[in-house]
Amino acid sequence: MTGPKDSAWNERVVDLLLKKFREVEKEEDWSLPNRSDLYVKNLIREKSKRIRTIWRKAQLRTKESGELEDEEEWEQRASSEQMEQLKKARHLTRRRAVSTAIP
To answer: How does residue 21 score in pLDDT terms, banded at 50, 70 and 90?
Structure first.
């Protein structure tokens, strides 16, 4: 999570996840369309990028004073960020609903 996205470690993890995906796909006889290994690897990489972003936002941050924020400060920051995301989502939903409702 802290190193580069395209490190050898992360590529090995992607390879292992692809292998596990293919094993489970065969065992459970999924009726999914056939996709290339490259396609599935790209899906795994994209998912890991999203997870990495969430993980980084959840880490304690350093305050201007140089000390780490405490749990209360972290919780307040995380809560306010979540509220801001929800506000944006409501705004976009409202915008789409209004723009499609107008003839």
So the answer is: very high
